[in-house]
Amino acid sequence: MAKDKKHNTEIVTKPQWFDGESVTIPMLQILKEDGSFHKGADMPEYDKDLIVKIHDTMQFIRTLDERMIAAQRQGRISFYLASRGEEAESVASAAALDDGDMIMGQYREQGALAYRGFTVEQFMNQLFSNEKDLGKGRQMPVHYGCADLNFMTISSPLGTQIPQATGYAFGQKMDKTGKCTICYFGEGAASEGDFHAALNMASVYKVPVIFFCRNNGYAISTPSQGEQYGGDGIAPRGIGYGMKTIRIDGNDVFAVLRATQEARRLAVEENEPVLIEAMSYRMSGHSTSDDPTGYRTREEEDDWKVKDPLDRLQKWMMNEGWLDKDHVEEHHAEVKAKVLAALKEAEKVPAPHIDELINDVYDEPTPLLKEQLEELKEHIRKYPDAYPKTSGRID
Amino acid sequence: MAKDKKHNTEIVTKPQWFDGESVTIPMLQILKEDGSFHKGADMPEYDKDLIVKIHDTMQFIRTLDERMIAAQRQGRISFYLASRGEEAESVASAAALDDGDMIMGQYREQGALAYRGFTVEQFMNQLFSNEKDLGKGRQMPVHYGCADLNFMTISSPLGTQIPQATGYAFGQKMDKTGKCTICYFGEGAASEGDFHAALNMASVYKVPVIFFCRNNGYAISTPSQGEQYGGDGIAPRGIGYGMKTIRIDGNDVFAVLRATQEARRLAVEENEPVLIEAMSYRMSGHSTSDDPTGYRTREEEDDWKVKDPLDRLQKWMMNEGWLDKDHVEEHHAEVKAKVLAALKEAEKVPAPHIDELINDVYDEPTPLLKEQLEELKEHIRKYPDAYPKTSGRID
Amino acid sequence: MAKMNLLQAINSALDLAMAKHDNVYSFGEDTGGFGGVFRATSGLTEKYGKHRNFNTPLVEQGIIGFANGLASQGSYAVAEIQFGDYIFPAFDQIVNESAKFRYRSGNEFDVGGLTIRTPYGGGIAGGHYHSQSPEAYFAHTPGMKIVTPRNPYEAKGLLLSAIFDKNPVLFMEPKRLYRASTGEVPEEEYTIPLGKADVVKEGTDITVLGWGAQMEMTEKAVEKAEEDGVSCEVIDLRTILPWDVETVTQSVLKTGRLVISQEAPITGGFASEIAATVQDKCFLYLESPIARVSGIDVPYPLCHEKEYMADHLKIYEAIKRSMNY
Amino acid sequence: MAKMNLLQAINSALDLAMAKHDNVYSFGEDTGGFGGVFRATSGLTEKYGKHRNFNTPLVEQGIIGFANGLASQGSYAVAEIQFGDYIFPAFDQIVNESAKFRYRSGNEFDVGGLTIRTPYGGGIAGGHYHSQSPEAYFAHTPGMKIVTPRNPYEAKGLLLSAIFDKNPVLFMEPKRLYRASTGEVPEEEYTIPLGKADVVKEGTDITVLGWGAQMEMTEKAVEKAEEDGVSCEVIDLRTILPWDVETVTQSVLKTGRLVISQEAPITGGFASEIAATVQDKCFLYLESPIARVSGIDVPYPLCHEKEYMADHLKIYEAIKRSMNY
Ligand SMILES: Cc1ncc(C[n+]2csc(CCOP(=O)(O)OP(=O)(O)O)c2C)c(N)n1
Ligand SMILES: Cc1ncc(C[n+]2csc(CCOP(=O)(O)OP(=O)(O)O)c2C)c(N)n1
Ligand SMILES: [Mg+2]
Ligand SMILES: [Mg+2]
Q1: DSSP bridge pairs for B183
Q2: Cβ of A138 and C314 within 8 Å?
Q3: ipTM
Q4: CATH class of C2-185
Q5: Measured between CA atoms, how close is C85 to chain A, in angstroms?
Q6: The domain over range D198-323 is classified in CATH as 3.40.50.150
Q7: In testing the pocket of ligand 2, which one of B140, B156, B158, B162 has its CB within 8 Å of the most ligand atoms?
Q8: pTM of the model
Q9: Nearest CA to A105 among A159, A177, A147?
């Protein structure tokens, strides 16, 4: 497992100090902000179908986000968290993967899940915590998960999924699956101890994992530069771990595709863990609980609007003749209608049965849990009005 | 607090991958293995007194270590942990500091403590957990601490002192003390999440702290290269944090002095946190509980013997006329006699009074603790023979 | 006096503490200029500068490690953990370091200036990770103090005590009550002693005990029970560690009955400690088993939150059961 | 059958588990070729290769994070934490992740293949950080199982159950007994069910309960008490979570008295949970208060270790007190 590299102990006799300036990591960009390619840029593998699917998924997610923020404002769901501005990161990276690869997200990667085929109904069932939710209504909205689609259930504690990705990839390697794991996280979560553990262990074990850092400039209200870290972002840390590392423009579908395709090859064919730092911007508030006007300026937000990943892709596709205004509008209208229909449907689905309260704590409910459930049911029978969600069908 | 540096977003249009090879951090050495200076080397500030004090402290510690390993073998103490081979690191770095600077160690920095003036009696009282131990006999041998000497009490959990050092240095900066904190740790402990937290926070807050990593090739039985980390040691991580970083020969008193002197200046005058990686070798077993023949070769140990920091310094001092064989032998004999005398003395000092069992849990013992102590004393009175250490003077 | 909600009372305590001593620092994730996700630290940066109230990087083990170091240097370190559910990455720094700092050094060093503030508890549709009541995880740790207030007045007085207490204190803020609980609070500094439970209401038939947000549930239940003619003695534990054994046992010796309510899952909760101690100290006086009304042994749920909670109806039923035993 | 000490029994369980399935992995600090600081994993690298039994970097949160991921992938991950005292950096990965993995995903994913092995407990001159018994810190966490054996036979059977149990298990090894406890152990595979306490000895006057290394102390105390003519029923809890309420309460219903001994500090220890539950379920049958014999509320000491420990004399005295109540 261990690679036998020696430390660099070349001798100097005058102190040589290193610091953040000692390495300069540039950013890969293929599609310019104006929607045209850089001349001579290294292109990813792609065809029209792929790009159209990426586009449509990005548009779907953006529309879903908009509608659900509105639904939250109307009090129909309790919480929502949008990925506006970062759709290229999750969608185009998912597009570079095999469907058998495991995805471990932080919570802003609905794009990757949609790309994998999670249906609008499935999204809605989770968001409404109803009995059709794969997660049985146990976690807050946006904590999606789906074993069939190899999308690990999101958990709120930040950073925990990063060493888990290393472990998952270790299993994939040992089982000779030819698959890899991609692990998304924010530049904020990269401050957690788990990040350090994960990257160091991946580098030691040489497992097929892609660490995909979404550097969107903020962790809630905390700006990345100078308050989240003192160095030049996350990428230079990869060098410290002796790990293949690249920085890319996260708003450029082609840069994301290109880098992730190569990362996957490195991971799967050479068992090289890879760190990708994608530079982007969280265009919405952190979540529906947040109001970013308290900590950042309109100008800053506007500066980033012109870099919008979806606009940029659409410009290029239109130039290419792969998209026209009509399709955009039709698709938007269609998605919106689907979302609204699914929303209304999901709203009507009842909450999970009270018995689900004690299932899955263990593979089988323990005697004590069964006793606790029985007592609880007895109590609900006594006060049915106080527990309207479940009292109607307790037996 | 935050510095307003921008990310590097220089654009490239072809993927540029970085990895461990992207940076090459050489090692500062001033005094060669043969005991002569590299020509044209950058020298630290030093004079004869300083070097003699460094030397005598190194020799003291080596002798103390030898004697106490023997004492442990004889069953006189329960545990010991030597710093053989790494004396230059702790002693010469302490020599570069102000006595008012805080030292936070891991457990193998007895050299720094001795340099500060901890007496042989103080060492012994701790090692014998007797009632004169400043730590009141509560921790295992080698967990020294002394507020008067600004040497923070050692705690066994690895890595915990690293973010504490960042916090301590923050207080020093805010209080405008003109002092700094030095924090020692092993390359093994640098894998802990606390390391990552500490360096990142120090880089954000720009506090006067020197992170001094003793890379001695092993964490108990785990070799550093390829099993503790996959990159080129600890130093390149500093670049990721945007922190002033240097790699030095840890067996070279002059390199340690030179680097730590400059680190202190950077820390105190410019509020620049600094990372020093000192390359050395743990010449003894990890502790008296360990037998390294189970995991490393004689040859490897021999390879390092020729790099011995004390031999190297002595060669140079003798050449310089600052030391002669007689002094070495006399000093050794003198230290040995002192150690043995102190050992015999400390052995006779009784264990702390049973009342100390409940002191210092809080600033004042709680009612419950007092009740627990009373019950315990009652019990000891009933079975005095079962608790011979304390039953003799319980009231 | 001024009308304040619980958040404002906390903010006022922080403000006064920082005004009192230059070396009181407040920090945590998003606690800087923005004032924290609940706004408990708002206005402090404007008033005391960005070196006194500031953001940390997103790393709880670092926040507490840093705070331990800062407190050991002699400063007052008031660290916020954004949600009690996210305190666990700092568990080692708390139970192995903060709690043992003074003891292990023979009093050469201490982190008495450390206070960890964290919002805790459920009832806000927060699911597994925005609802936990982790007090019992810490209450097995000699060296720590654990405090939780039930209303704004208590919050301010207890937090001021916690900040200047000579021991590390975990101060748990009932987030469900942040804005819901309001009351008259003195504008100036005052303290409420740690380690002393509060007999909120005297009574003779049964003792009903709780802490933090549970007190609201408890008081509602007691109202109902009193309507039935049961005279309840209500106690707010206030300090969970070290807890006030004396006040609680005195009460139970008088009433002969005890109901304890807590938000956390029942198994291994702090109510168990109280029950174990009280059955020992009041054995011959107990007229019915000590009842624990509590969350059940599942991760804090979302869609079944209402069913899960130890609400006033469940406490009321427990009082009745105890009376009718 | 072969004579084994507790370490050898553990090693044998690991060996058989790894032989049985290719996807059983064993790892931790120094657990690779060297075989761990206590040598529990020795020989496994030679037998199964360095990809099946290996060293990790020195990072407990990483070890358990990695293990969670590996288990979620469908493998059996057997992770060693070098000392129970060093498990706390992994606390978040255990209580927020391992324990909730299945529940939060609606059973889409689980880490049933996870087993965390860790040596625990005192009596070895280890001071604060090589002596702790942290079971109670974890026992407040629905979703985890916690198991501890009292002797080599139990160790092997319980560890094999733990490894192949469909839930994450924390397996605590009484390090004081690693070499001190020996006995006849079958060489082949066998299992002992989790969740079932063991009535080690039947008796009629009093129930004496413990787990892990405490059982040795308990048995010595009981010997002494029986000499006085007290008939003791001795129970080894074996599984701390979920614990066997039925067996314990049945015994107390019969004897009317209960002494529980644990190594950890008394406040917030697991003995408190048992006492709280038993006083509730056996209220009318109890003839004396349930006694907890336990460490006192200080960090595990070094020079006063003997005084601190819940030794056989203290248990014996508690039995007498309970009988004479
Ligand atoms: C361990 C932990 N600490 C704190 C939080 C609260 N929290 C949720 S999101 C967030 C910011 C995350 O920022 P980043 O990682 O940059 O991701 P982004 O939201 O920008 O996508 C914080 C502090 C949490 N969920 N988990
Ligand atoms: C948190 C924690 N985990 C594990 C240990 C056990 N342990 C003690 S020393 C050690 C190795 C440390 O190696 P390194 O940091 O390189 O320091 P060195 O001993 O080489 O000086 C280990 C694993 C510990 N003390 N603390
Ligand atoms: Mg971010
Ligand atoms: Mg080392």
Answers
A1: B104, B211
A2: no
A3: 0.98
A4: alpha beta
A5: 8
A6: no
A7: B158
A8: 0.98
A9: A159
